[in-house]
């Protein structure tokens, strides 16, 4: 039976090459990258290498690449960081009413902190 998977917005089947590399790293470079022992230093090198490769592909600086544990953490970091960095321009922020719950929750918290949150409605076409 042929599989047809239509939920790539939520998660996507990784390439075998990616699965193999992740497996190799998990098996061999499991040290805490913040530690000064050999395993930690090896793990830190893997992370730095990945950061350099991604930065090169995206044509950005390696220090502009951040790794998070998932989408919710990434959404929180990006939205809170951006909003607070630009607060001097005002405290009105805009989102849509159909955002992912992890996004909507960040805006709810920012509203509790005093930001003026505008939630745009959508129609059948978005």
Describe this protein with a few key phrases:
mainly alpha, two-stranded parallel ribbon, 4 helices, 48% helix
Number of helices: 4
Strand content: 5-15%
Strand order of the largest sheet: 1-2
CA-atom Rg in angstroms: 20 Å
Question: What would you note in describing this structure?
Answer:
By secondary structure, the chain is mostly helical. The protein has a two-stranded parallel ribbon with strand order 1-2. The mean pLDDT is about 95. It folds into 2 domains: about 15-65; about 70-120. Helix content is about 50%, strand content about 10%. Strand 1 (about 90-95), helix 4 (about 100-110) and strand 2 form a beta-alpha-beta unit. The protein has 4 helices and 2 strands. The protein is extended.
Overview in brief:
The chain is mainly alpha-helical and 126 residues long.
Layout of strands and helices, then pairs:
Blueprint: H1 16-28, H2 38-58, H3 71-85, E1 92-96, H4 101-112, E2 116-120
Parallel strand pairs: 1-2
């Amino acid at each position: 039976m042929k599989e047809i998977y239509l939920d790539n917005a939520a998660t996507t089947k990784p390439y075998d090459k990616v699965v193999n590399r992740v497996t190799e790293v998990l098996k061999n470079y499991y040290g805490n990258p913040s530690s000064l022992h050999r395993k930690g230093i090896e793990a830190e090198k893997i992370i730095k290498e990945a950061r350099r490769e991604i930065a090169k592909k995206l044509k950005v600086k390696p220090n502009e690449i951040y790794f998070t544990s998932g989408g919710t953490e990434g959404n929180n970091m990006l939205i809170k960081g951006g909003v607070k960095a630009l607060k001097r321009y005002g405290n009105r922020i805009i989102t849509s009413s159909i955002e992912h719950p992890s996004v909507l929750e960040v805006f709810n918290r920012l509203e509790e902190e005093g930001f003026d949150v505008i939630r745009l409605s959508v129609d059948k076409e978005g």
